[in-house]
Amino acid sequence: MTKRQIKIFDTTLRDGEQAPGCSLYPEEKVRIARQLVKMGVDTIEPGFPISSPGDFAAVQQISRELQGVEICGFARAVKIDIDAAVKATQDAALRRIHMFISSSDIHLDFQLRKTREQVLAEARQMVAYAKQFCERIEFTAMDSSRTGREYLYELVEAVIAEGATIINLPDTVGYAMPEDYGQMFSDVRKHARGADKVEFSTHCHNDLGLAVANSLAAIRNGANYVEVSVNGIGERAGNCSLEEIVMAIETHKDTLNMETGIVLEEIYNTSTMVSRMMNMPIAFNKPVVGRNAFQHESGIHQDGLLKNRNTYEIMEPEKLGIPRSMIILGKHSGRHALKHRIGQYGVDLDAQSLEEVYARFKDMADEQKHVTDDELMSLVGDAGASAAERLSLVQLQVVSSSDRSRVASATIRDNESGAEATWSGTGDGPIEAIVNCIRQAVPMDVTFADLELYSLSASEKATGEATVTVSCGTQTYKSSGLDVDILFATAKAFLSACNQAVRANPNASQSVSLMA
After folding, report:
1. First vs last Cα of the chain: how many Å apart?
2. Which CATH superfamily is domain 4-277 in?
3. DSSP string of 450-461, one letter each residue
4. pLDDT at 180 over 80
5. On the CB side of 153, how many CA atoms lie within 13 Å of its CA?
6. Does the fold of domain 391-509 match that of domain 4-277?
7. Domain at 391-509: CATH architecture
């Protein structure tokens, strides 16, 4: 049975960028737009052309470059906005003009200070005006979810009569409940004349945490397009999250009889790119792409996952392009998870040694909440097993200055030979200096790919956590470090990730040579 195709309308670069602190340079918009195309979105709304010369230029360049995706020009229902949207998108192979005007009484009375009749007349005139330039016209009745039904029917009928081809009924302030929002689509499609000749779109905000649920209610009641943003960014609490609704549909596609054209493997890359460029960190507990979405600390969960992933996971992170990091070692972890993690480092402990490591591990986890791989391997070494980490950090010193390069020096030990050597490096910042220093001791070409820094408490004595990802060839390796000194935490995490690369490349590991 052919599944119904739900079209993904991405407004990350328009509504998403309106979130405080998320402003992008035009060239950054272009880069994200390219990634959105790679991920398979159907329509991109690259910006608000009338809002600034930079936004106009970005929409224009994206329209010219990305010919295989529909480009949407956003505008208020006024001529100057429509003219800017038309001009900015004129080189697009596929395009639509998207205009909006408020429809709820609270907006009309206090924001627009206009009557229903005035708004109805303006909507008619502006849709007719835009229709001269573009066949595909999307009309948004802003704040639809708080608009009286009879007036909403009248407004929708009027713009359809003037040539609107897509009707968007947004939950602009995130007020609606799913059953009410879905019913609104059903009612408008049933009672508004001409509704059977147009497509419908849903645009939901997340003020009550219901954006995804409301969007699902809308598409189950006839919406063809769902308007979303990557990571759910946008005004106030944000928009319907692209990755969340796509995976909700994907996970239930057989019962919903729906599907999207999104390339799932590109979800994580897109999420990471948007987070970095917009300086908007992703919450640890964010569904689908959050740090904890596929990580488990509970011993009961870890045991079940190691036996069968489906016991506690409904999605496979690898299919979303997310590196697998399933087990987090903390005070709730059990022996099974501990043995599994140690085994991943090529160490097989007997029962007595495992108990000794487990006891020390529990003491450490109680004190600092969770235990990094580097610390775990130290515990293994203390128990008499052969050291799993080839290189270890003995000493680190970093010198910073406001008017010159930062300098780092590190003493590193080869745990197989026992040899130690001291290296030095410089950089514009202390972390760059540390990386340039330690990299010299690693017997292969590793690239510092990513760094996440977190404070684990609020006081001046807070422990810092650094999570570092390195790449070596086509493989990536990730590790964490904890310390009250965030630079030392970064150094430990970087060296631990490099040790993973060394273990994965045994031929290279034979060539480790610590010569000062």
Report:
1. 68
2. Aldolase class I (3.20.20.70)
3. EEEEEESSSSTT
4. yes
5. 11
6. no
7. 2-Layer Sandwich (3.30)
Looking at residue 244, its amino acid is E
- Quick one: which of 242, 181, 226, 169 has its CA closest to 208? 181
How far, in Å, CA of 16 to CA of 211, rounded?
14
CA distances from 459 to 89, 253, 329, 384 (A): 51, 47, 24, 37
pLDDT band at 335 (very low <50, low <70, confident <90, very high): confident
Q: How far apart are CA 133 and CA 461, in angstroms?
A: 62
Cβ atoms of residues 9 and 45 within 8 Å: yes
Question: What is the model's pLDDT at position 358?
Answer: 85
Written as one letter, the residue type at 488 is F
Domain ranges of the chain: 4-277, 299-382, 391-509
Nearest to 119 by CA among 105, 131, 130: 105
User: CA 407 to CA 125: how far, in whole Å?
Assistant: 66
Contact indicator for 30, 61 with CB cutoff of 8 Å: yes
- Among residues 497, 391, 370, the alpha carbon closest in space to that of 441 is found at 391
Give dist(CA 206, CA 395) in Å, integer.
Answer: 48
CB atoms within 10 A of CB 256: 17
Per-residue pLDDT at 481: 86
Token pair 């004129």 is at which residue?
A: 90
Neighbours of 473 (CB within 10 A): 12
- The answer for 36, left when phi > 0, alpha when psi is -120 to 50, beta otherwise, is alpha
The DSSP string of 96-122 is: EEEEEEE-SHHHIIIII---HHHHHHH
3-state class (DSSP) for residue 71: strand
Dist CA 30 CA 46 (whole Å): 9
Contacts of 356 (CB under 8 A, 6+ apart): 383
pLDDT at position 396: 95
- How far does Cα 44 stand from its chain's mean position? 17
C-alpha span between 329 and 298 (Å, rounded): 9
